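It would be a great kindness if you could assist me with a short task in structural biology. The matter concerns a single protein, recorded as an amino acid sequence and a row of backbone structure tokens. The record follows directly beneath this note:
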Amino acid sequence: MDLLSLLASDGYEMKRVASTRGGEFAGPCPFCRDGKDRFRVWPEQGEGGRWWCRQCGKSGDIIQYLREVRGLSFREACDAAGRVVPPSPFWRPKPRPPWEPRRTTPPGDLWQARARQLVEEGERRLFQPHGQGKKLLDWLQKKRGLSADSIKANRLGLHPQDTWDRPEYWGLEPVLKDTGIPKKLWIPRGLIIPYCQAEHVLRIRLRRPRADGDPRYYLLKGSDTRAMVWGRDRQVMVVVESELDGMLLYQEAGGLAGVVALGNAQARPDQAAAAALRQSRLILIALDGDAAGAREAWRWWTQNFPQAQRWPPIDGKDIGEMWQAGVKLGTWLKVGIQDYRAVIWEAKSLGKL
């Protein structure tokens, strides 16, 4: 894990501005949210990189970023970053206030109107019988396992080339370059992954082609950051990272479970996602099968959701790789429910959860 990857997953685009000191990158500050190049990152400095904002003056390393931006404790941040912290005989855990899910705010009407147009155009392009649309549709069906019905239900689309728009058309405050000229809103080419609820478009994420480099996933400025939820009233819920994995699992679940896609292993549920999880009887944590994901599943989730149980992917690090390896996702899910149903249902009936 490194700072550039963390920033990209949190929706902050960093661009290389110098090659000295192992490379220097600049972008918007996650703290003061001012400017486009005041936040500086040196990914080769120290363990995992260092950062500094020229505007608000905040600075630190990858551990400080995880603590301040993602709200992790020191030891949780070290675990997520892959650092080993030896226990101290003088260390005593401080009591922490109860966790409360974060509140999210939907984008304004102008943003949603512009996003709705982008989504509708993308849907039309994706289902064209030739060209980029056909190639991307084939990839979604043959490599990601999504059916045409699932693709349409989730309103996936194609944005065929990089475009730039005026931020005020989206209801966003323009940011000025050093020359005083307003910067335009970048919309990179790639797969459009929107989050829509009825007629509302809450988020636009774009999965860029591998050849275009980092970030692979780009969160369009102004998007809501709530978790994506399918089947929020199910008694069994499954927590995954990737939105595409969430779509695939919900498709293959056949009504057995609802799904929550967080975006990354360290993300916490927002209010709406937490409500869907709390009403369930069983939560299967299927975060990606790496060390950080496993630690998050065992520690934070069981502390805040007593009905949570770890049910990791097999024959692959995530749901998509598991499907590609030939694992029947419906069967994998049924076994997880059967393994934990008796324990959880009994605890519920006895009032222990």
